[in-house]
Amino acid sequence: MFPPQPPSGVFGLLVYLVGLVVLWVVVSIPVYFAGKLVKGERASFGNAMGATLGGVVVYYVVYFVVAFTLGAFLGSAAGVMALVLGFLAWLAVFRSAFHTSWFGAVGIVVLAWIILLVLDVILVAIFGVRFPDFFPF
Predict the structure, then answer these.
(1) I need a labelling partner for 55 at 20 to 30 A (CA). Which of 2, 82, 104, 112 fits?
(2) What's the maximum distance between 2 C-alpha atoms anywhere in the chain?
(3) Contact, 68 vs 134, CB < 8 A?
């Protein structure tokens, strides 16, 4: 596969940004439903969108900072440590966004993955399209 090309021109950049916003909204839907199941009425779509965006940003910042700073000392083990710390930071964002416990945050994440998997199966059955292959199985 060829590496993806960056958008060229103003129109290409606009289409790229609109696509990112649409993807953000679509990925926030399972998080919203999972938050509703775990937190009930206190979960909102704004919470889900904030957790989705904030979780990704915090995860990557923590992952790259830990991998970069500890890579010289720990070698490849720094990548594993960065992965674990990034995941914990991502859970902390969900915990904060939904005002829940650590177990509640894990519950929201697990339910969101299950809902996303069900939506993927439905999309394939009805339209023949699927989410990108980001499932861990």
Answers:
(1) 2
(2) 51
(3) no
Would you say 124 and 130 are in contact if contact means Cβ atoms under 8 Å apart?
Answer: yes
114: which residues sit within 8 A by CB, 6+ positions away?
34
Residue 70 within any structural domain of the chain? yes
Q: Is residue 103 classed as helix, strand or coil in its secondary structure? A: helix
- Residue 32: C-alpha distances to residues 3, 7, 39, 119, 131 (Å): 33, 31, 10, 13, 18
| pTM score | 0.78
- Domain tally for the chain? 1
The answer to whether residue 14 is domain-embedded is no
Task: Please count the helices (runs of H) and the strands (runs of E) in the chain.
Answer: 4, 0
- The share of the chain scoring above pLDDT 70, in percent, equals 91
